[in-house]
Amino acid sequence: MILPKTNRLTAEQLTEITAIVGEFGCKIQPIIGAVRTIYAIVGDERDELMINRLEGLAYVDRIDRIQSPFKLMDKRSDLASHRLQLGGVKLGEELLVIAGACTIDPKNPNYFYETAAAVKEAGAQVLRGGVWKPRTNPYAFQGDVKSLDILMEASRRTGLPVDTEVMEDSHIKLALEAGVHSLQVGARNALNYSLLRSIGRAIAEKDTCVLLKRSIHMGSLAEFISAAEYIAAFGNPNVILCPRGTTPTLDGYRNHPDESITPLLKEKTWAPVVIDPSHSVGKAVYVPACALAAVAYGADGLCIESHVSPSHGIGDDPKQAVTPDVLAKIIKQAKQLWTLRHGPASA
Ligand code: PEP
Ligand code: MN
User: Fold this and answer.
1) 109 phi and psi, to 5 degrees?
2) pLDDT, tens digit, 9 for 90 and up, residues 34-60
3) Whose CA is nearest to atom 4 of ligand 1?
């Protein structure tokens, strides 16, 4: 829909926009109002080049799109009835909890094995553990490929599927070969389109899930859903949206908590929303409230950092990992809240 700056276009302007949209197989239908005339684009209006050319015209105020730019992830797409399954949970039917250490310590694997067993006991259905870590400080521990074996051994011991972050093609390959069930795209890489494409391509024929974090820098909803679309476009739409707090930070928290965007996301996309309260607030003591707020906002799940002995953890664990007993309490209360909101779990 083209909205001109004036009440109606001149004959020359109408000829010009008709010619532009004609190049993209579309037509113009004027909608004549008492005061203002607006111009509907009839046809597939999703071509970015066409929109850019129209937006570049001095007499065009703005273009309102009727069609969604997310062909697959849009709530009105045919995929809207698609249900993701992870850890025996059908998302949307039961609260999904992903929990585990921020970073696997390759020198002390027992902490991770004990954490894996403990988060399972607490009620988590998926185990998380960082093998490769994106660190702000280049001299901080960057992860170690040896941790991939530890992650998969913990998966075998507990029977839990696992989630880990991948940052480059070699990680994707190794993680998929090892049998990782969910590839995490971190907040720093949420706009790395070549990585998103590589993941999409690599999982196109598989049922692997992707936990896509929201970009740190206040990514708009459209930007976030478009990042998911990059992956889904290759054929596997199993993308979970994971808000994890944005900058600028709220004084006292690590980031600015953003679980409140859940209902807005759910209006636009059918993709499940799993909130990460740990990176959002960044301190273990605030995690339970943030997790419950997320469920109240309608989240389908939670991704929580937990460690049997946070002070012995590496990466974020000393600051933000909750102990398994706290995790168990969060899960219990979150499930009660889930039931209040959705009725008893159908799974
Ligand atoms: C993490 O999950 O440990 C992590 C680094 O997450 P984020 O990308 O959200 O910072
Ligand atoms: Mn972390």
Assistant:
1) -60, -25
2) 999 999 999 988 889 999 999 999 999
3) 186
